[in-house]
Specification:
Elements (H helix, E strand, L loop, with lengths): L1 H7 L3 H26 L2 H4 L7 H4 L1 H24 L1 H18 L6 H28 L3 H56 L13 H14 L4 H11 L5 H22 L8 H4 L2 H30 L4 H25 L5 H19 L12 H29 L4 H40 L6 H11 L9 H55 L4 H5 L1
């Protein structure tokens, strides 16, 4: 009882320290994950890499990070929070120091892989420190909402601080900050201990085999690498992508067969296949796809328009403030059983923001996207905490052993779901760009006076340097082709924004139908079997 009551009697000042420590841990882990992926175009020169080669940095980080978090649940239960926290932060500090010695792409990929391993405990520690600051009654409401809000802040902060760090020292400038934050977080673990929990021998030999197979299929170079690199090498052009997917299917099938025949499985496959958990996973996956509008579509759209960081600074400040505001509002509204009441406005915000963005043109600037991106950021912050609280409560109702199974579902929908969103929308934009480019090209006929006039205008800038009339017209045609490609890309991004809005509206419609059925069931018990069948 003392371990449970201790957080409730924590002084306000000490509670604030734990909240600040949690925020710092989340920020340290989030910056480590985002600094490279957000600045690939800027750092590829210092690493002597092409844009496709630089993308391996993100794949190398995500490969071990996705699956290792699941294994840490049992490691923490068997060896204790104290040892887990101390070893985790020391490992992250060492990995951060290794970034200083990166000199080329190969060393960067190796260090990013190690960083992905070392960062896995950091998000867990962030959650634990946030939960530690609140009494038991508020752990799955206020604490959970604040913790998940902290996970959304690193992305806009990365965009805000990256220009100065790159000017200081390219790659080394970026990760000197991560190293400094890791060193600041190091004493926090020792000065602010977590409430100890009883140790138990929960790791079995068969767990090791199951985890290794899960890591290969779920993380190490298979699903994660295919989702990151598939669009760049193109899905049907590189045979090794298919080989990785085949290996993933084999290893994950082996995990299912092993776990179904164990008395004490690492992951309860039957529970994961239940209707309630499948529904929960589908909800989170759809949300992550829609939330990718901001990270996977809007960010690439800014790059297409050639917008620089200084032009986007105000937009990212608005996104940061909206994420924080949405998280605080969610913390105030969160109550057990009120998830649907929060999800309705959240999905409405996501749909409205994505639809507003679908009317972009080549003249669109950040000022025209302030409101839409604020809606998307606030909707994202509102949606996730109630959904996770509902799933976590369902896992606790089944027993502590189901926590790991729930974490696997959550990791899959958020980490792999985020990669799926980026891959799906990136592929969709590529296909739609080809479609729009073909349609626009069909309308470009040199005998058309307007087309001839436009070519003359574009080539006029080179009239003093190019005397040959044929070469001058050829330059004008090439410039017109570039304009067509740009406009086709803009139309493709508009289609992607609209697709995200349609998905959000579809999810909202399904949610409203479910709410209506529940309301009818309360007034007429005879329709309960029909509603639950």
């Amino acid at each position: 009882m003392n371990a449970v009551a201790a957080p409730g009697s924590m002084r306000i000042g000490k509670s604030a320290l734990y909240i600040a420590g949690s925020a710092l841990l989340f920020l340290t882990q989030g910056l480590g994950m985002n600094l490279a992926s957000a600045n690939l175009a800027q750092v590829q020169g210092s690493l002597s890499a092409t844009s496709v080669e630089a993308a391996w940095l993100a794949a190398a980080y995500m490969a071990p990070n996705v699956s290792l978090s699941a294994a840490l649940v049992k490691i923490r239960a068997q060896y204790g929070l104290r040892r887990f926290a101390e070893i985790g932060i020391v490992g992250f500090v060492i990995a951060s120091l290794m970034n200083v010695f990166v000199s080329d792409l190969h060393s960067a990929v190796v260090v990013r892989f190690i960083s992905g391993i070392a960062a896995a405990p950091m998000s867990t520690l962030g959650f634990l420190y946030m939960l530690e600051a609140f009494p038991p009654a508020r752990k799955l409401t206020v604490a959970l909402a604040l913790a998940l809000t902290c996970t959304t802040l690193a992305a806009p902060i990365t965009r805000l601080i990256s220009p100065e760090l790159i000017e200081i020292g390219q790659w080394h400038g970026l990760y000197t900050l991560e190293m400094a934050l890791a060193l600041i977080a190091l004493p926090i673990i020792y000065l602010l201990p977590l409430t100890p929990v009883p140790h138990a021998k929960v790791i079995q030999r068969a767990d090791i085999l199951s985890y290794l197979l899960l890591a290969v299929g779920f993380g190490f170079g298979c699903v994660a690498v295919v989702l990151v690199m598939g669009r760049l090498y193109w899905w049907f052009e590189a045979p090794w992508l298919g080989m990785l997917l085949a290996l993933s299917v084999v290893t994950l099938t082996a995990v299912v067969l092993i776990e179904l025949n164990r008395e004490q499985p690492l992951i309860d496959i039957r529970w994961l296949a239940s209707r309630e958990i499948v529904h929960f996973a589908a909800v989170l996956l759809i949300f992550r796809l829609v939330a990718s509008e901001q990270s996977a579509i809007a960010t690439n759209f800014y790059q297409l328009l050639g917008l620089q960081y200084d032009q986007l600074a105000t937009l990212y400040w608005i996104i940061l403030a909206s994420s924080l505001g949405g998280g605080l509002l969610c913390a105030a509204l969160m109550k057990p059983g009120h998830a649907d009441a929060v999800h309705v406005p959240a999905l409405g915000m996501l749909a409205a923001g994505a639809y507003m963005d679908s009317h972009a043109t080549s003249l669109t600037r950040p000022e025209q996207m302030y409101v839409s991106q604020a809606l998307v950021a606030a909707g994202t912050a509102l949606f996730l905490p109630p959904a996770m609280a509902r799933g976590f409560t369902a896992a606790l109702a089944k027993g502590p052993s189901y926590i790991l199974s729930f974490i696997v579902v959550f990791l899959f929908t958020q980490s792999i779901g985020g990669l799926m969103g980026s891959a799906a929308f990136g592929t969709f934009v590529t296909l739609r760009e080809k479609f729009h480019a073909n349609i626009l090209a069909e309308q470009i006929v040199l005998s058309n006076p307007l087309v001839a006039q436009r070519i003359g205008q574009l080539s006029g800038a080179y009239a003093k340097a190019i005397v040959d009339r044929a070469l001058l017209n050829g330059e004008g045609v090439a410039l017109l082709g570039q304009t067509i490609t740009r406009e086709a890309n803009i139309l493709a991004y508009n289609d992607a924004f609209l697709l995200a809005a349609i998905i959000a509206l579809f999810a909202l419609a399904v949610l409203l139908i479910q709410i209506a059925v529940k309301q009818l069931a309360r007034h007429d018990p005879d329709i309960v079997p029909a509603a639950t069948s």
